[in-house]
Design a protein that fits this description.
Blueprint lengths: L1 E2 L6 E8 L9 E7 L2 E5 L10 E6 L5 E8 L9 E9 L6
Length: 93
Amino acid sequence: MYDLDGSWDRFTGHVGMDDEVGDGGGILFRVYGDDKLLFESPEMDGSNIKQLMDLSIAGVKELRLVLLATGDDAQGNHGDWLDTNLIKQGSGR
């Protein structure tokens, strides 16, 4: 969970299963802004390619990143948040 001041415009990056799990595992990524669901990935396993996120977070004061294990075995799950950025309008980053 990240406390923001409401002045950020976008949250960008990628999500995906870490290479160490091979084709196995099962995960779901979610992003909440002030308890509102802003993003939900499809259910992913090691055979999926990473998923792009480009989310509007204008006015958001609390950003929460959630990784959920799907299926019965959470041991084979290792999800990655890749190249994530908070961006302010006109800042370039």
